[in-house]
Model the fold of this input.
Amino acid sequence: MSKIILKSAEQIEGIRESALILSKLLAEIAKEIKPGVKTISLDKLAYDYIQDNGGTPAFLNYNGFPYSLCISVNDQVVHGFPSDYELKDGDIISVDGGVDLKGYISDSAFTFGVGEIDDDIAQLLRITRESLDKGVEFAVKGNRVGDISSAIQDYIIPHGYGIVRELVGHGVGLSLHEKPEVPNYGSRGRGVKLELGMVIAIEPMINLGKKGVRFWDDGWTVSTVDGKPSAHFEHTVAINKGKPDVLTTYAFVDEVLNKKVDNQ
Done:
């Protein structure tokens, strides 16, 4: 079994630089999301943007994955393929990306609404994003992975949503997937103890309906078992004393989305 890799302060700064590129990329993608856009065009944008900023797409060719982004629409939970599918009013789209900058790897995802989305789906997105924030609060030295997991779970359960169990967060930074696993369900005080130097990706995957998922024959795409929508948000976080050090940010995305609302 592979060990947890503790990063030096210098390595964490390298991951932070990678995360900044990724955070700005998600904002560039936010600008493009509207009805009529083909999801494959977002993948090309990501490839070009990451390359132009001195990095490489961490997902491209990872275990054979053929794209720079995972793009998962509506009932797709994660690991969807970009394609010629044209976004429609009322869709939701999870955009999950990674940047490798000189060997330092970041991972982040955001689920966008396309045009006008139903109120129940808008609430799913809002609650899932808020659950990520609740989990991140516990990503500090001395806590345990289960403290993060239970914070997410406790925030989601009252809303009656399904918490995906087959897929979890993970360590990240020098490889795309490292130890430890970070589930979105669990008990406080359980699991791996969080130490300085750990960097993790926290990523609630929350379904409007049942928690069950099905795996597609393409070997990657995962969708809800009942065909209802799923939301996915993810931050890369370094474990610190007292308060979490969130390396990715949604500030750039929010700026773009707020401008879109103002211009309507």
User: Anything to note?
Assistant: Residues 237 and 246 are 4 Å apart (CA to CA). The chain has one domain: 9-262. The domain at 9-262 is CATH 3.90.230.10 (Creatine Amidinohydrolase).
